[in-house]
Amino acid sequence: MRERLASVLFGGSCFLCRGAARALLCAQCEAELPRLHRSLCPRCALESPLGAVCGRCLSESPAYDATHAALAYDFPADALVHALKFRGELALASLFAGLLAPKLAHARVDHVVPVPLSAERLRQRGYNQAVEIARRLGKPVDFALCERTREAPPQMELPYAERQRNVRGAFRCTRALAGARVAVVDDVMTTGATLDEMARTLKAAGAVHVENWVVARTLPHV
Ligand SMILES: [Zn+2]
Ligand SMILES: [Zn+2]
Question: What distance in angstroms lies between residue 211's CA and the mean position of ligand 1's atoms?
Fold first, then answer.
């Protein structure tokens, strides 16, 4: 219903440039999205020569085993993610799921889990953007497998070590996962601290493989 309403509001014009469009974005804006297809570290989806596991993943091995990301978190992907997250533009979740799905053709997982929001944050926002993306991927989603026990303070300005402390113990699995392969869905992966903590929690519950399915990856800008 909300999605139908959104398409009525867009009225056949591109969400980004307002030009004529038959989908959420016109063909040109869709073609210009900052897609990730350089050689990436299979573990964290940052650039890595020849697609090998990168130095950081080798030296500070994260709890997750793989990351699939569709876009770089650059303009306009950042604006689109923001519109889904804070302005309730839920139709964007379909666009994101459509961009992510081709990357998952060979993924072999038993559970698909969105990064949960705390009950309080969910009440304030009315929806969880990770849930909205996950439910449009065309795979069964396990909405209740993980809970957020507390909302970490905003991560934006914190260095990695502090972000990691910030999210420590923020999630809980609601059942045992012995031997399971799990995919965790989120909108953006920045330092990866939140996803690292999710993976740590899932593995403590028995998961043997955890991979991240994220719409956009923040790239280091030097
Ligand atoms: Zn456009
Ligand atoms: Zn890496």
Answer: 32
